[in-house]
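User: Hey, my collaborator sent me this sequence without any context and asked if I could get a structure. I don't really work with proteins. Can you help?
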Amino acid sequence: MIPELGQFALVLAAMVAVAQSIVPLVGAARGNVRWMAVGATAAILQFVMIALAFASLAYAHIVSDFTVRNVVENSFAAMPLLYKITGVWGNHEGSMLLWVFILAFYGMLIGVFGNNLPRGLKARVLSVQGMIGLGFLAFILATSDPFDRIANPPPDGEGLNPLLQDPGLAFHPPFLYLGYVGFSVAFAFAVAALIDGRVDAAWARWVRPWTLAAWSALTLGVAMGSWWAYYTLGWGGWWGWDPVENASLMPWLAGTALLHSAIVVEKRDALKSWTILLAILTFSLSLIGTFLVRSGLTTSVHSFALDPSRGIFVLGLLVAATGGALTLYAIRAPSLKLGGLFQPISREGGLVLNNLLLSTMCATVFIGTLYPMFLNALTGRTVSVGPPFFNATFLPLSIPLIAALGVGPMLSWKRGDLPGALGRLKFAALATIVIALATYYLKHGGPIMAVPAMAGAAWLVGSAIAEIAGRIRLGQVPLGNSFSRAVALPRAAWGMTLAHAGLGIAIAGMTGTSLWTVERIQAMRPGDSVELAGYQVRLDSVGPVKGPNYDADRATFTVTRDGQYFATLTPERRTVHPQDQSVTNIGIRTDFMADIYVVIGEPDPGEPGAYVTRLYHHPLVPWIWFGAVVMVFGGLVSLSDRRLRVGAPSRRLASLPAAVSAE
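Assistant: No problem. I've predicted the 3D structure and written it out in C-alpha cell form, which is a compact way to encode the shape of the chain:
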C-alpha cells in the first residue's frame, strides 16, 4: 500500500507541475496577481507530494519490502540500517527521485521565502522550475518507476553495490545533488530575466545567494566524492579524471565563474549578458552530468550504466532545456543594456580574466571528457583521454588564475592601480618566495613543478590574508580599532577571504600527494617489515572476521618510526554478500601533515603464506579536504551576510502598480 501511495503522489506532483509551469507564466504576461500567486502554492504542494513519494520509497527500503523491485535490486535484509537508507539513492530510480525532491525543495524555498522578489519575476522563476520538474517527473513515471512491484517476491534482496556500502555515500550524493539541482534556480532566474527583458543590480542580488548555496553544496559534494574514492577504492588516489568525476567538476568551474560574474552585475551593472549565459551553461553542465551517469556511454564506479533508452530521454530533456534557453538568449541578449564601463586594470577586469580562465578550463575538461564518446558514436573508433591530457591542458591555465585571484581583490572598481595593488601584496609575495625556496631546498631533486605549485598555494593564502588585513588596517591603526573594523566588515568579505585561502590550502594538499607520494607494493608474510618514507611497517597477522553482511580477512600492521611505536592499522579484504564481491577496507593513520595508507590484497600464489600489500605515504593529503571545508565555510559565511539573505533592497519592490489586474 505504501509504494502505491508514493507512486500516486508522483502522479499528483506531475499534475501540479503542469499547473506550475503554465498558470503563473500566463499570469505574469497578463499582470494577473491571482494567477501569479498560483506558482508559490503549486511549488509548495509539489514539494509535499514528492516528499511523500520519497518517504514511501525510504520506508520500503528500511522495512525490506521485497515486493518492490527497487528494494530487491538494491537492498539486503542483513544490511545495516544506514546502508538501507543509502540504498534509496544508490541506484538510478532512487537517485532520480532524490533529484526531483531537491528540485522541489528549492522551488518550495522560493515560494515561501521569495516575497521580496517582484511578483512577475517570482512567477516566471517558479514557472521555469515547474517545467524542469515536469520533465524529470515524466522521465521517472515513463522509464524509471521506483515503485515497480514484483509478482513473486524473493525472500531476500540482491544487495546494494558493495562499493556504495560506506558512510560517505550517505552524504555525498545529497550534497552533490544540492549543488547540481541548485543551479537550476540560477537558470530559472536567467530565463525569467530574458522573458522580462531586464537584468539589473537587483536581479544579481537575488541570484547570488541561490548560486552561492548551490556552489557551497557542490564544493562539499565533490570533496566528499574524492575523499570516498581515496579511502574506499584502495587505489591510493583521490582524483583520476574519471568521466563522472569530470561531470561534477565542470558545473563547479562554471558555477564559480557565475558567482564572480554576478558580483560585477550587482556592483557595476556590467557583464549582464555574460552572467545570463553562464547561468544557462552551468545548469546545462549539471544536466550533462546527469546524462553521463545514466546513458551507459561511460563505465565508472560512480555511474548507473543503464540501457541507452533512458539516456536518450535525459538527452532530450537536456536539449529542450539548453536549446530553449539559448534560443531565448540569442533573441533577447542583444537588447540588454551594456551597463557600466571599466578599464582593463580594475576589479571588474580581474573578474573578467578570472571568468575567461575558468571557462577555458571548463572547456578543456568538457572536450577531454566528451570527445572520446562523440568519436566512438560517430566513427566506432575508441580513444582514451586520460590524466596526461588533462594535466597538460588544465594545470597550465591554473597558474594565471591563481595570480589573478591574488591581485584582483586588491584593485579598485572601474579603474585600478596595479603597482599600488602589488605594493599592498609585498608580504604575500615575500611569503610566496620563502615557500618556493623552502620547497626547492627540502625537495631538491624532486619534481620541478612542486616549486611553482607550492608557491601558488602560498600566494593564494598570503594574498587572502593581506586583503583582509588591508581592509581592517592591521598594523596601521591601534589593534582595538582593527578589531572593531573586523567586526563591522561585511560577512561576504570574510567569506571571500576564507574561500580563497581554502583553495590555496587545497592546492598545497594536491601538490603534496600528487608529487611526493611514496608507494610500496610487495608480497609480505606475517613478521615481514617494509620501510616507507622513514617509517617501518610490519605485518603482524592476517585472520578471518565476520561482519553483518560480509566475511573478511583482517590484517594487523604495526607502524614505528625510529624504533618508537606510531600506529596500528587493520585493513581488510571483504567478501560482501549476497553478491560475493570482493572490496577493500583500507587502514589510514593521519597526523594532518601526511597519511600512512595500507591495503591488504589477495594471497600471493607464488609465495605460500604471503599477501600482496600496497603501502603509501601521502604528504599533505588531508589538506585537500581541510581546504575544501574552509571553502565551504567561507561560502556559508558569505551566505549569512544580511545583504544576500534579504535578497532585495526593500520589500516594497515586490509591490505592483495599481493598474495591475487582480482578476
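In plain terms: Residues 86 and 170 are 5 Å apart (CA to CA). You can pass these C-alpha cells on to your collaborator as they are.
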